[in-house]
Amino acid sequence: MQFETKLLSSSETDIKEAAEIIIKGGIVGMPTETVYGLAADAENADAVAEIFKAKGRPQDNPLIVHIEDIADFEKYAKNVPDMAYKLAEKFCPGPLTMVLPKRDRIPDVTSAGLDTVGIRMPSHKAALALIRTSGKAVAAPSANLSGSPSPTTAAHVMDDMRGRIPAIIDGGSCPVGVESTVISFEGNAVRILRPGFISAEELSEFAEVIIDRHITEAAESGERVLSPGMKYKHYSPKANVTIIESSGTDYVKFVNSQGGEGVYAMPFDSDEKFCEIPCIPYGDSSEEQAARLFAALRKFDELGAKQVYARCPSKEGVGLAVYNRLLRAAGFEVKVI
Ligand code: TXA
Ligand code: MG
User: What mean pLDDT, rounded, does the chain reach?
Assistant: First the structure.
C-alpha cells in the first residue's frame, strides 16, 4: 500500500487540500454527477501515467479532460464546430463528452496517442470546485479498477482504490449513475460513441444522430473501433451475467425455474415480489435503473454470486445506456424468450 487513502468532504478546506494534491501531480477520487472519477492534472504526463497504473488501465484507452468553463474548449481543442457550442449551450455543464481535435498541450498519454481529446464540463459542484481551485483541467476516467463496475459512491472508490491514491472526495451518491454520453462530429451529424444520460432522442433535436453499431454489437477481435473503450469487456462483476429479453411474466417464470447456490435474479422493482430466487432489483424507470445498475452489480460480488439473470432494460432514452453497460457486463450474452 503506497498511500493511506484519506476520505475528504466537499468543504472548502478539504477541496483546497485535494487541489494541492492535483497541483503537486497526485490523484484524487472525484465525485461527478455520472460516476466517480480519478482526477489528475490533464497536462501533467507523469500524473496521468499514474492514473493508468492505479486503475490497471490499457495504455491505448484515452481519458476525458474535465473543464469548469465552456470557454476552455478552445484551450484544449481546435477547430471546434459550431454544433459543439450549440450542444454545450443546452447540455453543459452535464453528462456530455465531445471528442474534438486536440491541441498540443494535451500530452499523448492523456489522449492515448490519438489526435483527438474528449472534453466535458461536469455539473457536480465538488468536481467544479476542484477544477477551479486547482486551476487545472483534470483528466479523469471512472474510478474503478479496470474491468470492474464503475463506482457511484465514495465507498465503491475506497473498495477499489484503497492504498493506490492519496485521497477521495466524498460527494455522496452520483445522481445519474452511468457515465457521460460520448459523441464525435461528422459534418452536420453527431455520432454517439458511448450512450449516456443525454439520449439520442435529445441530441436529435439539434443534429442528425448516428448511433455507432459497437454500442450494441461486440467488436470482432482486431476490428477497428472509433472509441477505444468499445473494445474492452467492462463493468463486469465476478459472476456470469445473462440478460433475459422477455416480458415481465416470462422473466419471472424463467428465473423461478432456475435455482441453486449463487444464482440470483436482477429484476425490475415491480417483478421483485414474484421472484422466488434471491434477487437485487434495479428499478423500474430507465433513470432509476441507470442510477442503481453499478451498485447492484457490485452487490452481487459482495454476495459471491456465480450467475445473475438480469431482466433486459428498455433500449430507449437513457435505457440505451443501461442496456449498453449491462451488455458489456454480460459479455454480450442475451437470451431472448
Ligand atoms: O461520465 C464520465 O464520462 C466519467 C466521469 C468520471 O466523468 N468518466 C469516464 O471515463 O467514464 P472513462 O475513461 O471510464 O471512459 C471514457 C470513454 C472511454 O470509452 C474512451 O475510450 C472514450 O471515452 N474516449 C475518451 N477520449 C476519446 C477520444 N479522444 N476518442 C474516442 N473515444 C474517447
Ligand atoms: Mg470507465
Answer: 95
Separation in Å, CA 49 to CA 39, 107, 139, 179, 297 = 12, 10, 11, 22, 28
Backbone dihedral region for residue 260 (phi beyond 0: left; psi -120 to 50: alpha; all else: beta): left
Instruction: Write the pLDDT tens digit of every residue in 282-292.
Output: 999 999 999 99
**142 C-alpha to ligand 2 centroid (Å):** 4
pLDDT digits (tens, 9 = 90+) for 191-202: 999 999 999 999
Q: Whose CA is nearest to atom 31 of ligand 1?
A: 227
Burial class (CB in 10 A: 0-12, 13-18, 19+), 43: middle
What is d(CA 67, CA 131) in angstroms, rounded to the nearest whole number?
A: 7
Written as one letter, the residue type at 127 is: A
pLDDT score for 94: 98
The answer on 198 and 66 residing in a single domain is yes
Domain extent at residue 266: 240-336
SS3 state of residue 223? coil
Query: Is the domain of 294 the same as that of 215?
Result: no
Number of domains in the chain: 2
Place of cell 484519506: 6
Q: Is the CB of 31 under 6 A from ligand 1?
A: no
- pLDDT tens per residue, range 75-129: 999 999 999 999 999 999 999 999 999 999 999 999 999 999 999 999 999 999 9
Place of cell 442503481: 292
Please state the rounded mean pLDDT for residues 204-233: 87
Question: How is residue 176 written as a grid cell?
Answer: 445519474
Atom of ligand 1 nearest to the CA of 95: 1
The average pLDDT across 232-251 equals 88
Nearest to 308 by CA among 248, 219, 237: 237
The neighbouring-strand residues paired with 307 are: 240, 263
Q: Quote the pTM value.
A: 0.97
CA of 281 to the centre of ligand 1 (A): 28
DSSP 175: S
Whether residues 265 and 207 share a domain: the answer is no
Q: For residues 163 and 64, state if they share a domain.
A: yes
Domain's final residue, options 178, 197, 231: 231
- Report yes or no: 138 and 120 within 8 Å, Cβ to Cβ: no
